[in-house]
Amino acid sequence: MSIYGAMFSGITSLNANSQAMGIISDNISNLNTVGFKNTEARFSTLVTASGSLTSYSPGGVKSSSYQAADRQGLLQATQSSTDIAMSGQGFFVVNTDTAPGNGSFLYTRAGQFSVDANGFLINAGGFYLQGWPTLPDGSYDVDQNNIADVSVPDPTSLANLQPIQVTALAGTVTPTTTVDISLNLPATALVGDTNSASVLIYDALGVGHNAALQWSKTVASPATWTLEVTGLTRADDGTASVTGATLASFPLTIDTVTFNGDGTPASFAPAALSIPAADWTTGAAASNVAFDLGNVDRADGVTQFASNYSIVSINQDGLTFGRFQSIAMTEDGQVTALFDNGVQQTIYRLPIATFANPAALISKSGNAWSHTINAGNLTLNPAGTGTAGKVSPSSLEASTVDLGAEFTNMIITQRAYSASSRIITTADQMLEELVRIKR
């Protein structure tokens, strides 16, 4: 009977609008949830197949939820270096555990991470941020053996990812490898005249060694100067010979420079100038220190002009011990450790997960999603490559909930629910009239 069909149709409408009201309430509740994606209630008809041209059998309505997991939210700047947001397509990869193989991989756009007691980056949902381990130069070290393994990790494998741990980095030292010298030697100097300078050189333990540099004019024409280094104490006996420079007991003659008539260097002997690698008495590992005096026929290093002896610059690239201070992230997903001696080391690279159909991901508590077969294959790319979006450092992605739209939908849903209840009330009145016929 169509009257009963109308009542059941009204019931389906009540159920569908009740579910829609639940979706609206969930959206409003998550108005301030970082990275939250609003859910839409989508209605579709229920058709009774037994209907014909002369009779109609009411069906009803059903509702389903749709959540656009990759919908872009507004980016808001923050003061935290561990806050990250996604600009474009993709998700950050997280795990429920820090031990390999123990947890489950999930995907999120909620980038409000902080450092926990063990130094891992964890977000408000309790999930640990994952990354590809790298060497300081940015090359990938997926098996963490301190050797560059691959140019690009397998984009389909989660096995190469590690939870990002930052406080395990106690500190770093940068031994001196190059000393750049730029100065002018007086053209009016006589044979036997000397000029001096000094530079602090660091070994592999971060111990500083004060090297004294002495320039001596040895030949008047063509003008020739020799460079000696004193003050360095090394464990070798001074008998090694590298690139033509013989190590004798200090002072050590490490180069001879002959000048052109225009004040620029004509030649260096040896051409490759360095202190050969040897062990330091401090116990530091062997290191080789190269001296850069400029280029032949160019006034870009050591020169000889009719002026006073003047030092433009003497720079070396070594640094003493530096303690871990903080981390920074870049748009291409590099996680960089900052040390208080000024050293910056790349320690991880963030993979960005993309799917052909992200709307098919299953929503999980903690504002994360899990992979399903309907979402398509998982692809991991460095940020900003392929279809992967870029990382926005010190930013958070706001919820996509539009409060005005939700209130409007709430009014419409309430009216639809009320109208559906009238269907049942009216159908009941019609049944009551039908019952009165026999009286």
Q: What does this molecule look like?
A:
With 439 residues, the protein is mainly beta. The protein folds into three domains: 2-68 and 400-436, no CATH class; 75-171 and 323-397, no CATH class; 176-317, Tick-borne Encephalitis virus Glycoprotein, domain 1 (Sandwich), CATH 2.60.98. It is built from two helices and 32 strands. Strands 5, 6, 9, 10, 11, 24, 25, 26, 27 and 30 form a ten-stranded antiparallel β-sheet that branches. Strands 12, 20, 21, 22 and 23 form a five-stranded mixed β-sheet that branches. A five-stranded antiparallel β-sheet has the order 13-14-15-18-19, with no helix packed on it. Strand 28 and strand 29 form a beta hairpin. 30% of the residues are buried.
Q: Keywords, please?
A:
5-stranded mixed beta sheet, 14% helix, 3 domains, mainly beta, 10-stranded antiparallel beta sheet, 32 strands, Tick-borne Encephalitis virus Glycoprotein, domain 1, single chain, 2 helices, 439 residues
